Amino acid sequence: MSDTTITPDTPAAPSSPKREFRSLYAIDDLTRKRNAAERRFKAYGIGAILIGLFFLAVLAYSIIKEGIPAFTRTIVEVEFALTQEQFDAAEKELFKTKAYENFFIGALKTQLDESGMDVPFDEAAIERLVGKTGGTIREFFKSNPDQLGKPVEFELAASSRVDGYRNGRVTRETITDSRFLQKSDLDIVDALVEAEVIKTVFNWNFITGADSGVDNPGGAGIGASVVGSFFMMLVVLALSLPIGVAASIYLEEFAPQNRFTDLIEVNISNLAAVPSIVFGILGLAVFIQFMHLPQSAPLVGGLVLTLMTLPTIIISTRASLKAVPPSIRDAALGIGASKMQATFHHVLPLAMPGILTGTILGLAQALGETAPLLLIGMVGFVARGYPDGFIAGFTEPNSAMPAQIYTWAARADFAFYEKAWGGIIVLLVFLLTMNIIAIILRRRFERRW
Amino acid sequence: MKFSTLVSATALAVASTAFVGAAQARDQVQVAGSSTVLPYASIVAEAFGENTDFPTPVVESGGSSAGLKRFCEGVGENTIDVANASRKIREKEIKACAEAGVKDIIEVRIGYDGIVFASQKDGPAFTTFQPSDIFNALGAKVLKDGELVDNPYTNWADFNGDLPNVEIAAFIPGTKHGTREVFEDKVLLAGCETTGAFEKFLEAAEGDGDKAKKKAAEKACISVRADGKSVDIDGDYTETLARIDSNANGIGIFGLAFYENNTDKLKVATMGGIAPSTESIASGEYPVSRPLFFYVKKAHIGVIPGLKEYAQFFIHDQIAGPQGPLAQYGLVSDPELAVTQASIEAEETMK
């Protein structure tokens, strides 16, 4: 608006047309245009945020809609007594769990016969209704031999098709008769639901259990792989935090500025951009084939993920060290502190919230990583039980949450697909918790200058 | 300094766990390989853990070739004991094994797997295929009016009026899958021969001698068109299923077990007039099937607890037999199971 200060009798520059003089309160065309541009930009911004929120909502909705069935399960509740003779006979078999299953099916059939249900059924139909139950029964009687001969109330998993029928995945319209389930079986299911033999309950087993074979989706749980992820994160934290922080303090506060340190800096940035699968190949070659560490072990997984997380931590730590004002260092050095004292007593505590946030975000990233685990043998039927003991948690074969989800998503039985979505919910809960911790730490310790 | 003590303490702790881990003897069987065999192996592994006092074996996926490669890395606790494969081990792999010290390999055939062609349940009526149909639809070069031409067909009805007049869209396993090899040998090559394209390829083939010519012709037969009508799926059958779900005209290739688990979404087509089923595959009538194997390192028997027992358990009549859980899931059980059982008992190795 410098034009307004020019006096009227100054001749206008020959190239520009003569300007009119108006009140400052009247909005001229140029101002209107600029204001419109500003409004448009605001609208774009709001639009971008709305699109982002829309996609987030769609994602959250589909995850919850698909994943919720994993948290309920259909059970068959039966009172069932096993005699000592039956127990001994089953223990003599090679396929013991099958023998227990047959006893259970027989007992269930007798019970239904006595209850006088008016829907026709036979043993084969009952076999289709119940899931794999032998393992649970055998385990119970092996650890409680005094219960033999007494009636025991069992809650055993129904088959995955029955489970699907109860939560709407399988309907009378879509079902085709197969050896897994037949249309007529659904009448039995309905009758049993009415008789409260078949129930839908909260699936604690999904949260606490281990992986199961592909024909036993009712028994699959994510608990063991949560433990695997936990031990991996312990290794990542114990290694990457001290190494990362030490490296960045040295580079930021002590290292001379020369070509060599420049080279290191460039390479750290490059390392942060290396695809994670590359670290998996490296891990296989170095940790398993060269150092002979155990296969499929969370220890190796943790080591590989440490390599992947280190650059992230170094970069964020250096950024937060840089953000500490030089006056703090100068003041400390000015009153006679050594460089190390200045760094450790003054700079580092002030940079701590930033370092912790960066570390937690790096850990969250590592928690969700699958690709490197593929190569060190943590994908497949691996998370098949809890480790016994703390040290074993590092060395015994185990899977991790994202690897478990990946495995489930690839299985033929659709029930496992639901489990995969349920697993995603569990994983997201963990990630959200970690991010919330990061936010709280930052809020609490943040200092402004 | 507090900080440095923390660093050295954690470093020490991690280092010590690493050494403990390395020193610990492995007590569970370690299996890797084919993703087709993985479901069966996981069923057996779970049952093995539940029914014996041995720990549950670890079964990793990764594909037949990757599994055999790791199998052939050498002998010792940090190598796998068993490799699952959806094809027979190759000469080259046996040689690589021998060079790394894995000289005694026990081959175990667990049964057969059918490969089926399926489409959306409510989609166009793809109910019967001949190998020639598949070859005409997917071959890179096909025979038209007695001439070899780049595949000109866009719709199924273009070459066979009995098929639905919809655009060709096929989802076939990628080249890293063992399934692809069976598809090439038993469908594309068969179709190539029945349409007469093989003869033409043979005439046009260059090379020294009949053998090289035949090889070149076979190679030409199994090359798949690259104009987007045929899509390689490198992932699992679930990915193929997702593609079929979103494309009503799509035809996908699945394992029999996978199809049987998803009959509410898919319908299957007959091949050469035979409907795929465990019976038609066991009798050998259905043309597209293959044996499934696993390979055991003999040197590990007696070192890794439960290894021989695992192999015996796997092919026991109650497990791999026609009434067992594997057949229940979709494996076509091997009629000659008794021979395999005897060979494991005697620890017979491959020649």
What's this entry about, in short?
The complex is a heterodimer of chains A (449) and B (351). Chain A has 449 residues and is mainly α.
Structure report:
The complex is a heterodimer of chains A (449) and B (351). Chain A is built from 18 helices and four strands. Chain A folds into three domains: 29-68; 70-219, no CATH class; 223-445, MetI-like fold. Chain A is mainly alpha-helical. Chain B is an alpha/beta fold and 351 residues long. Chain B has two domains: 26-113 and 290-345, Periplasmic binding protein-like II (D-Maltodextrin-Binding Protein, domain 2), CATH 3.40.190.10; 114-289, 3-Layer(aba) Sandwich (D-Maltodextrin-Binding Protein, domain 2). In chain B, the strands form two sheets. In chain B, strands 1, 2, 3, 4, 5, 8, 9, 10, 11, 12 and 13 form an eleven-stranded mixed sheet that branches. In chain B, strands 6-7 form a two-stranded antiparallel sheet. In chain B, helix 5 (131-138) packs across helix 6 and helix 7 (197-204) crosses helix 8. Chain B starts with a helix and ends in a 6-residue tail after the last helix. Classes of the chains: A mainly alpha (449), B alpha/beta (351). Chains A and B meet through helix 3, helix 5, helix 9, strand 4 and helix 16 of A and helix 1, helix 2, strand 2, helix 10 and helix 14 of B. Strand 4 (380-381) of chain A pairs antiparallel with strand 2 (58-60) of chain B.
